[in-house]
Design brief:
By secondary structure, the protein is α/β, with parallel strands linked by helices. It has a single domain (about 5-260), classed as Metal-dependent hydrolases (TIM Barrel), CATH 3.20.20.140. The protein contains 11 helices and 10 strands. A 5-stranded parallel β-sheet has the order 4-5-6-7-8, sandwiched between helices. A 3-stranded parallel β-sheet has the order 1-2-3. A two-stranded antiparallel ribbon has the order 9-10. The termini are close together. Bound molecules: zinc ion. Zinc ion binds next to loops.
């Protein structure tokens, strides 16, 4: 993000905007049109990627925008077949303050690659620690405790901020994450079901961001787009007993505070 741009956000001389802090823009068939849509609607969007080979194209497109930032990723579900790409990932890290999608997926279909996933994630965390100033969008399926152990062991938490995307751990794991300074990008799918209230009680309001995780989620029977994030805001507002406008501002203030913690942006 250009310095002036970040200062603009941090000064707060603007309207409150929606935030989609985890969306795979480059996996939509109309990638460039979607980028234009996010710009037109002024939605602060973190475009996560699944392989570092997607970095250059995403960076080129996002560099012309005001509202889109790109995460340098290596998706845990791809590590079984793409683990060698961690070398390229490490080479590119100095170009960005945003990392993701990274993490651990311990579901049965990815169990075979779990040892490699751990090695790759450890390298990700150590590389972020040595540079500092990174925001990490983290996938932790059936692995919240393991990921938290790894964050404590390998990530300099005073200089980097992990953001759990679509957190599916327990309320006590959420409390542990919050104590470590982690944030949470909450999507609409997290807001249905009997465990929602207990989980939301465990997540401090100042740690809440919003996301769609499109195109892997649907809104109204169609693939979710960043513009649908307002529905998540509405549902989150209902769940925590706040006004939707207040939740929109809360999330936007949380984003500003997070950006303020990025000491140095390339
Ligand atoms: Zn994702």
């Amino acid at each position: 993000m250009p310095e002036g741009d970040r200062d603009h956000i941090l000064r707060g001389r603007h309207l409150t905007r929606f935030v989609d802090f985890h969306c795979h823009l480059d996996l939509y068939p109309d990638f460039e049109a979607l980028v234009a849509e996010c710009e037109r609607l002024s939605i602060y969007t973190l475009a996560v990627t699944t392989t570092p080979r997607a970095w250059s194209k995403n960076k080129a497109v996002a560099s012309k925008t005001k509202y889109i930032r790109v995460g340098l990723g290596l998706h845990p579900q791809l590590v079984g077949t793409h683990s060698k790409e961690i070398d390229l990932w490490e080479k590119l890290l100095h170009e960005t303050a945003y990392v993701g999608e990274v993490g651990i997926d311990a579901s049965p279909q990815y169990a075979k690659s779990l040892p490699e996933q751990k090695q790759v994630f450890e390298r990700v965390l150590k590389a972020c620690s040595s540079e500092g100033g990174k925001v990490l969008s983290i996938h932790a399926v059936r692995s919240a405790s393991l990921v938290l152990d790894m964050l404590e062991e390998h990530l300099d938490l005073s200089a980097n901020t992990p953001v759990f995307h679509w957190f599916s751990g327990s309320p006590s794991e959420a409390r542990r994450a919050a104590k470590l300074g982690c944030m949470f990008s909450i999507n609409d799918r997290m807001l249905t079901g009997s465990k929602t209230q207990a989980l939301l009680k465990a997540i401090p309001e100042e740690a809440m961001l919003t996301e769609t995780d499109g195109p892997f989620t649907e809104t109204g029977g169609k693939t979710s787009r960043p513009k649908d994030v307002h529905i998540c805001v509405n549902h989150l507002a209902t769940q925590i007993g706040r006004d939707p406008t207040a939740v929109q501002s809360l999330v936007f203030e949380n984003l500003k505070r997070l950006l303020g913690q990025i000491r140095r942006e390339p």
